[in-house]
Amino acid sequence: MIDSLFYRKTLAETWSGRNDGTDLAVQRWHQRVILVDLLPGVVPLLSPGQQGIALIGFSCDEGVRRNGGRVGAKDGPAHFRKACCNLPVHFPEDTVFLDLGDIVCTDLDMEGAQRSLSEVVSFALANGYRPLVIGGGHEVAYGHYKGIDGYIDQGDSIGVINFDAHFDLREPDAHGTNSGTGFFQIAEDCKASEKPFRYMPVGIQLNSNTKYLFDTAAGLGVQHIPAEGFMASNQDLIQRQLDDFTAGSTHIYLTICMDVFSSSFAPGVSAAAFSGLIPDAFFFSCLKAVMASGKVISMDIAECNPVFDQDQRTAKLAAALAFSMIT
Fold it and tell me: Which residue, among 232, 247, 239, has the nearest Cα to 278 in the 3D structure?
């Protein structure tokens, strides 16, 4: 099912932490996660109505390197797992929580890694599991989207909600695609297959995107929520925008780039900014509302870069985001 050149299973010692007993009320994530080696291609069967979560690492930052960013996000999945080990279990008792290992970028072959990620995402969905992909650079988005698109019914539509400081609508240059071209590639694929391109970036920073990118977004019919307007006083408006966008899609692919947050909360990213969204109660209420729509088919967290992290702040925030999305 998967090319072994692009795959690495998670080692058992990765998931370890505090143990207060085996009773559900005191369990932590490291006690519930089931490690799966994907090379045999077998995962536990789910019963009807049972929830399944499939954690997939995307150990790649070749797209960041091509885009002139700070490399190091390839180690984001390991950094994330470490921050998640001691999270308390609050998801339903019968939830099956898998760790499917990492897709790795071999010999700078980002495109091969994206194809492999696409295959694993489709495989997880076909077996009833909701993927939670951890990057890695935001080149994760193109492979992730392709995996969703390869699984869903032909007439279904995918709406992408991207919490990000950047549009990532760059056109490929002489060096090919990169971490900033993913959503432009998706738009091109949608055009070629005569499917609607439904994309809503949230947290866009005026000083992090050229006028050309704003024009590109407008030309593609992309409505965005700017960072400066993302605040509790605008909650009703923002919630309507998210609700309207979600209602217009069969499925929602939710992606969060850690650089959407102020660097005081997320210093360990590939492209840090001094300002950005605040991960406060308002932010998490918006995130929970998207999840509560019942349309989120798959989700990811990108650009967690341990090389530049401080006191694991970025990894712990990524863990808190994951906790909120699956609880």
Answer: 232
CA distance 172 to 111: 13
Question: In terms of Cα–Cα distance, which of 26, 37, 150, 157 is closest to 89?
Answer: 26
Cβ-Cβ contacts under 8 Å for 264 (sequence gap 6 or more): none
pTM score of the predicted model: 0.98
- Distance between first and last Cα of the chain: 30
Which residue in this structure is represented by tokens 């959407």? Answer: 260
What is the token pair recorded at 247?
């209602």
Query: Residue 162 and residue 263: Cα distance in Å, rounded?
Result: 18
Angular region, 233: left φ>0, alpha ψ -120 to 50, beta rest: alpha
| 3-class DSSP string for 231-256 | CHHHHHHHHHHHHHHHHCCCEEEEEE
Query: Burial level of 47, CB count in 10 A (0-12/13-18/19+)?
Result: exposed
Residue 272: its pLDDT value, please?
86
> Residue 96: which of 38, 53, 47 has the closest Cα?
53
- Distances 160 to 5, 148, 206, 248 between C-alpha atoms, Å: 29, 11, 20, 11
**Cα-based distances in Å from 316 to 76, 243, 284, 313:** 12, 28, 15, 5
Strand partners, 132: 55, 299
Burial 231-253 (b: 16+ CB within 10 A, else e): eeeeeeebeebbeebbeebebbb
In degrees, to the nearest 5, what angle opens at C-alpha 42 toward C-alphas 39 and 46? 150
pLDDT digits (tens, 9 = 90+) for 71-85: 999 999 999 999 999
